[in-house]
Amino acid sequence: MITILGKTTSINVRKVLWTCEEAGLAYQQEDYGSGFASTETDAFRALNPNAMVPVLIDGDFVLWESNAICRYLVRKAGRHELLPAEPQACANVERWMDWQATEFNNAWRYVFPALGRKNPDFNDPERIAAGIKEWNHCITILENQLQRTGAFAAGETFSLADVVLGLSVNRWKMTPFDKPDVPAIEAWFERLNQRPAFLRHGNNGMI
Question: Which residue numbers delimit the GST N-terminal domain (predicted)?
Answer without folding.
Answer: 1-81
